[in-house]
Amino acid sequence: MTTNTKLILSSNNQNLEIDLSRGGAITHLTLFSNGKSRKVICPKKGYDNESSLLFPFPNRLANGQFSFQGIDYQFPLNDYGRPNALHGFVKDMPFQVLQQMPDAITLQCTYTGDLEYYPFPFRMALTYHLRPGELHVYLEIENTGATTLPCGFGWHPYFHLEEGADSTSIELKNVSKIGVENLLPTGRATPYRLLDNGCLIEELDLDTCFEFSKKGVVNGAKIHYPDDATLEVWQDENQPYVQLYTPEDRRAIAIEPMTCNIDALNNQAGLKLLSSGESWSIEYGVRLY
Predict the structure, then answer these.
(1) Which of 94, 101, 263, 287 pairs as cysteine with 232 (C-beta 3.0–4.6 A)?
(2) Please, what's the b/e burial string for 26-58 (b: 16 or more CB within 10 A of its CB; e: otherwise)?
């Protein structure tokens, strides 16, 4: 165990920094591939929830409310003036180090179910593994309570655009755009092809959820840099949704793998129900080539 707030992992000419006090979130990530280093994640002033783990739900929960097994629950409203809850609460929990190796680190947090708006205990274990040119993330969530646990998960990284949004493009294939009203899903989705062959990030204005059409496989998005390098953001078969967000200043782009739709605790689209004692494993990561 350790009481340090920030931890740094260095391996294969690469560096990873994480913040234990902020849900084990990544604060810096540099990858090395084809003889070059690239700063992939770094802090941005004014950017909220950078690289946060989003649990027990990602994205928005309408009015902060949901019902489960006949009981109503009310999360605090924190959606920047909108009447919603945003991104759950694991992002604000402290993590502890279980194991550290030269190229990997495993963290853990334990929640006892003490919040009245989410009385479902769980344990979360998170492993960051620096491989050559890649960060691989393995997550395990265990229901440590006596009742069924309803949940969804997401990751909220902002990827640094060193060369600028006017010369860097994003590619995303085989998706449908989730229809929304006031950023909440309408229940409709339409095929989306604009990013099939890549599009300059400068030309986009996105705060948009997409669903992959290919289920049961690894999916993802690709950032293409002007020097012909590519960063692939991949997510396993447990994560059929992804949110793209382009901040106004375009210093970065958020590519957020998610296991479920917006407001999943209400609409059940992708909602995971974990029985007492059951565990759920999720994998995702970024690959530079």
Answers:
(1) 287
(2) bbbbbbbbeeeebebbbeeeebebbbbbbbbbb
Q: Report phi then psi at 22, rounded to 5.
A: -120, 55
Strand pairing report for 230-235 and 199-200: unpaired
List the one residue out of 224, 219, 258, 222 whose CA is nearest residue 242: 258
Residue 2 CA from chain centroid, whole number: 25
What is this structure's pTM?
0.96
Q: Is 49 left (phi over 0), alpha (psi -120 to 50) or beta?
A: left
Torsion sign across C-alpha atoms 115, 76, 57, 244: negative
pLDDT at 1 over 60: no
Measured CA angle at 20 (ends 250, 220), to 5 deg: 45
Architecture in CATH of 6-288: Distorted Sandwich (2.70)
What six digits make up the tokens of 33?
């591939």
To which H or E segment does residue 243 belong?
A: strand 241-245
Token representation of residue 136: 């691989």
- In this structure, are residues 190 and 179 in contact, taking their beta carbons and an 8 Å threshold? yes
Q: Which residues are 178's β-sheet partners?
A: 189
**Which tokens hold the place of 19?**
């913040």
Task: Residue 235: count other Cβ atoms within 10 Å of its Cβ.
Answer: 26
The pLDDT tens digits for 45-87 are 999 999 999 999 999 999 999 999 999 999 999 999 999 999 9
56 conformational bin, left if phi > 0, alpha if psi -120 to 50, beta if neither: alpha
Of the candidates 236, 244, 222, the residue with the CA atom closest to the CA atom of residue 289? 222
* 232-270: pLDDT as tens digits: 999 999 999 999 999 999 999 999 999 999 999 999 999
